[in-house]
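FOLDING PROBLEM:
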Amino acid sequence: MKTIYNDLSSIIKADSIKTNEPLSNYTFTKTGGNSDFVITPKTYQEVQNVYKYSLEHNIPITILGNGSNLIVKDGGIRGLVLILTEMNNIYLLDKKIKAQSGASIIDVSGFALKSSLTGLEFACGIPGSIGGALYMNAGAYGGVVSDVLQEALVLDTNGDFLTLSKDEMELDYRKSSIAQNGYLVLEATFGLTPGNFNEIKKKMDELTFQRESKQPLEYPSCGSVFKRPPGYFAGKLIQDSGLQGKQIGGAQVSTKHAGFIVNVGSASASDYLELISHIQNTVKTKFGVDLEPEVIIIGED
């Protein structure tokens, strides 16, 4: 551990490195065990330095994003965990917006509003980072990232910089070649359309009202837990299974929106996983439908 720390300190500032760090400090569910190292790089070069170091020394490396659509198991994560939230610059280039991977997609949506550019209104309530949004082709209220994304700068699995076009990212429902190929997102470019500030704001206000009135934002959660099964809505299946309010440990199926599992008091990742399994088994038994998690589950038991 000390050797790795010293090595890392030679390629990234020491104040960007934490050891034996609780990952519950970084996940929206407020759950998750410790990581050997948590690293918060501030530049693309630092990301590349750390990534190539991990390859050269055969040390596992995990990208955490901002921890919004994620469950880290109670055993934590071995090796290096990269958190890119320090890389959060957003800037305007003609009618395009470039955003670093650690920027919140909510902030990018707000930046588009200030620039009177339309196309990202749907994202005004998505809690994820830009990197996570590309990884999963995030969407809400009828819009998806692939509607407006033009290209992305990534690190490939050799630690080299690579620019991907929208087509090369193969964006589909909660899928992308970024996830399939294990790329690390550094920056995204969005092509937007000039619009009317007041009309854009009105749409975003409407979507914000819908989100706040229907989603359990008063509790920690990982967002929508399950993908939408063809022909159904996951939340309605869970509700119709009589599971709304079902609780295991500190994890509860939200009484406000059955598609969410909330942390109502000192939940562990194991509570979440046990409740997810119970929901899947119950819905399968009652309706014959397989619920596939949308939330990403990582780490050791």
Notes: Residues 269-287 form the longest helix (19 residues). The helical segments are 2-9, 44-56, 105-114, 130-136, 177-181, 197-214, 234-240, 269-287. The longest strand covers residues 184-191.
